[in-house]
Amino acid sequence: MLVEVLKSKIHCAIVTEANLHYMGSITIDEALMEAAALIAGERVYIVNNMNGERFDTYIIKGPRDSGCICLNGAAARKVQVGDVVIIMAYAHLDLEEAKAFQPRIIFPTAENRL
Predict the structure, then answer these.
(1) Looking at domain 2-106, which of 2.40.40.20, 1.20.272.10, 3.40.50.1980, 3.40.50.150 is its CATH number?
(2) Distance of CA 72 to the CA centre of its chain
(3) pLDDT tens digits, residue range 6-46?
């Protein structure tokens, strides 16, 4: 049996851009992606702590050490620059493997740095 567990989490990142005129996704600073074990194209779930919105999209790699957290396309309607968001990815693991699995959770600074 497989169970879905939290794999990666960027806790309380600050939205730096909201670009409505883009095809969609979230652009995340490459350094944050690596620290949280996330990859380009991966599906992520986003919670906006400021307005309660919850949605999912996929990742685009942003410039390293830029602090970039940019919601693109339709997702840009769900945030404002300065909003605090939680970005999460999940994985399907075998039940026994899942019991011992530890997710990668990072807590960026107010400037979205490590």
Answers:
(1) 2.40.40.20
(2) 13
(3) 999 999 999 999 999 998 899 999 999 999 999 999 999 99
Report domain extents, the chain.
2-106
Name the active-site residue from 22, 45, 58, 90: 58
Q: How many residues does the chain have?
A: 114
HEC secondary structure over the chain: CEEEEEEEEEEEEECCEEECCCCCEEEEEHHHHHHCCCCCCCEEEEEECCCCCEEEEEEEEECCCCCCEEEEHHHHHHCCCCCEEEEEEEEEEEHHHHHHCCCEEECCCCCCCC
Q: Of 22, 25, 45, 90, which is the active-site residue?
A: 25
Q: What is the mean pLDDT of the chain?
A: 97
Q: Which of 1, 20, 11, 17 has the alpha carbon at shortest distance from 45?
A: 11
Q: Catalytic annotation on 58?
A: yes
Q: Is 45 a catalytic residue?
A: no
